[in-house]
């Protein structure tokens, strides 16, 4: 068994694009875990989608052997963490599997919102941090300034902060040397009842669920019967091993070691991230801390364009759920769109990824309705009902109170943009909750904001107002009562359920007006006039008309936007326009997402 004192478990944490994957690749090279010629760029990002989007979705864990300059050989486990706020629970579990973390900061950018959020997570988890300035090969690098920011954050001497280039490999060895000195060896009792943390789990078509584990106490051996303490799942270990970076079976994993475990279990929900594994014989009685059921935050309807595809969509969702415990769905029937599913996601990015996988891997053509959050509605009868579909909103006369989820947002920005960001936050019903200077030029703003506003277009607007310089991180802070109303859209006099939305009363008029205008641009001319109305209850607040088709009108001109969220819309333009017959009216997919563009004109 491995010498526990020579094990080091660490993650790399960084803001998106600061070079985490590149540094991980260099570490594999420096330690000769992979030969340079075998090195595929960004080996750790295994899914195609990830590589294409350039973001890390799944945590991975690689064992590397490092001959340090102190003459000792260390067994390092590098645990890669997801880089997006949607997956923050997975990040927290990956960090819980480590004693230390490399904090990578782009020397040409500086500390960003996610750098801060991850740093706080790591500090809360008691991790030892090794800060690193990356990309010093760039002409625009400002290592002195950024070292100052890092030292503000961690209290380090700025001169001790390593300066490296993950691209050229410069300084990477020194990083590992500093790491083995600073980060403590894992504690853990080899004789205690066995416990291991599942920090990630994924479904493999051939092998079933692969659980990524960090052994805390005792040992786990092939053939042994195990139990997941929160889920109650019982199974036998078919294979246990580590990543080198290929899966390498071994006989046992002991305290402090990181690896994988295969049991034949076929559903990731049975071996969930955050759960504690123990052995059936000599079982531990106390689970490791920090288990949480992840809850979906954002919901939307997914409907097949061709209603014959409904069973295929169900199959595809069932398969995806095997691999994604955070994805939830239930059948939904819409008068406008027919049979489909109401799906719940961790956030907008998660939603985008799932939708894309359904279309790409399962070859489905889908209509997506606008994203919504989950409201809590207290009826006059005091009964409390969750509502995550605007069309399910109860009759207003029966409602005592509607509560909506709020977030605490942390925004990092150069100080010149503070004014415009405050304006944006106020427009999004935010309340100011604090402001600090991180350095002479960089400011951290804190706001309490309704999640519903963030879900729509907050992030895009933040980026465009600050030319990409501001960064955002947030966490859920609870529910608050709000004066919300349901806004209905009627086409040719018929309400279209899939276009309903829940908005704040003070904004209902403006939103109704802009939405009607947007829909007018999106809905192509038909053989007859199509009146578009926005209404609160029976009160019409806005009206537009799509005039009947005339011969000289050739095609619709679709507006163009370039942000990530609107790629959703972009994509439609490339292929044939997706249309759905709603009553007498042909409605394109874009119309159902028109609400995402509201912010442009508001
Ligand atoms: N010039 C230079 N570019 C670098 C360096 N390290 C990374 N990059 C580039 O920066 C970009 C982002 O690097 P990644 O390693 O993908 O960043 P990441 O932090 O893993 O990003 P996510 O996985 O999206 O969180 C890539 O284009 C890299 O080639 C460096 O030291 N110097």
UniProtKB/TrEMBL annotation:
Biological process (GO) annotations? positive regulation of translation
* Reactions the enzyme catalyzes: GTP + H2O = GDP + phosphate + H(+)
The record gives the membrane topology as: Peripheral membrane protein
Ranges in coiled-coil conformation: none
Q: Enumerate the GO terms in the molecular function aspect.
A: GTP binding; GTPase activity; ribosome binding; translation elongation factor activity
Q: What class of enzyme is it?
A: hydrolase
* Protein name, per record: Elongation factor 4
User: What is the native source organism of this protein?
Assistant: Conexibacter woesei (strain DSM 14684 / CCUG 47730 / CIP 108061 / JCM 11494 / NBRC 100937 / ID131577)
Gene of this entry: lepA
């Amino acid at each position: 068994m491995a010498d526990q004192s020579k094990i080091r478990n660490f993650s790399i944490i960084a803001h998106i694009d600061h070079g985490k994957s590149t540094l991980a690749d260099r570490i594999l090279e420096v330690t000769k875990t992979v030969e340079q010629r075998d090195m595929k760029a960004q080996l750790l990002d295994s899914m195609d989608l990830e590589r294409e989007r350039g973001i890390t979705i799944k945590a991975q864990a690689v064992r590397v052997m490092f001959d340090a300059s102190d003459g000792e050989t260390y067994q390092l486990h590098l645990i890669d963490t997801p880089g997006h706020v949607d997956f923050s629970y997975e990040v927290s579990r990956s960090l819980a599997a480590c004693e230390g973390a490399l904090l990578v900061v782009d020397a040409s950018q500086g500390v960003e919102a996610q750098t801060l959020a991850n740093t706080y997570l790591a500090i809360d988890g008691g991790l030892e941090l090794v800060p690193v300035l990356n990309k010093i090969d760039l002409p625009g690098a400002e290592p002195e300034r950024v070292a100052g920011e890092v030292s503000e954050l961690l209290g380090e001497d700025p001169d001790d902060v390593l300066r490296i280039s993950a691209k050229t490999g410069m300084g990477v060895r020194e990083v590992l040397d500093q790491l083995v000195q600073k980060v403590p060896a894992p504690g853990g009792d080899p004789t205690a009842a066995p416990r291991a943390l599942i920090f990630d789990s994924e479904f493999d078509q051939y092998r079933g669920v692969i659980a990524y584990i960090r052994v805390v106490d005792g040992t786990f051996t092939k053939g042994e019967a195990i139990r997941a303490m929160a889920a109650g799942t019982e199974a036998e270990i078919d294979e246990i091993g580590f990543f080198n970076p290929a899966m390498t079976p071994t006989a046992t994993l002991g305290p402090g070691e990181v690896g994988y475990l295969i049991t034949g279990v076929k559903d990731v929900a049975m071996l969930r991230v955050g759960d504690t594994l123990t052995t059936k014989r000599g079982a531990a009685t106390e689970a490791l801390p920090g288990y949480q059921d992840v809850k979906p935050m954002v919901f939307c309807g997914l409907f097949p364009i061709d209603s014959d595809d409904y069973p295929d969509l169900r199959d595809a969702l069932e398969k995806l759920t095997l691999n994604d415990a955070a994805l939830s769905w239930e059948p939904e029937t819409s008068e406008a769109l027919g049979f489909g599913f109401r799906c719940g996601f961790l956030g907008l990015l998660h939603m985008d990824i799932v939708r894309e996988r359904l279309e790409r891997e399962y070859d489905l053509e889908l209509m997506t309705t606008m994203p919504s959050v989950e409201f809590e509605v207290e009826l006059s009868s005091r009964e409390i009902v969750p509502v995550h579909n605007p069309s399910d909103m109860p009759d207003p006369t029966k409602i005592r109170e509607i509560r909506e989820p709020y977030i605490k947002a942390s925004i990092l920005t150069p100080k010149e943009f503070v004014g415009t960001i405050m304006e944006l936050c106020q427009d999004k019903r935010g309340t100011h909750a604090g402001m600090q200077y991180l350095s002479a030029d960089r400011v951290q703003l804190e706001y309490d904001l309704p999640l519903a506003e963030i879900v729509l277009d907050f992030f895009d607007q933040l980026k465009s107002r600050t030319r990409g310089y501001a960064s955002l991180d947030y966490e859920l802070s609870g529910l608050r009562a709000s004066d919300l109303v349901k806004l209905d859209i009627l086409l040719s006099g018929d309400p279209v359920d899939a276009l309903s939305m829940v908005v704040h009363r003070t904004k209902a008029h403006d939103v109704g007006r802009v939405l009607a205008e947007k829909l007018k641009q999106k809905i192509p001319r038909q053989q007859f006039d199509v009146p578009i109305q926005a209404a609160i209850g029976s009160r019409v607040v806005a009206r537009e008309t799509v005039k009947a088709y005339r011969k000289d009108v050739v095609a619709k001109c679709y507006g163009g936007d370039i942000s990530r969220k609107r790629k959703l819309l972009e994509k439609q333009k490339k292929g044939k326009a997706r249309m759905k017959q709603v009553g007498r009216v042909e409605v394109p997919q874009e119309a159902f997402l028109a609400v995402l563009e509201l912010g442009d004109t508001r």
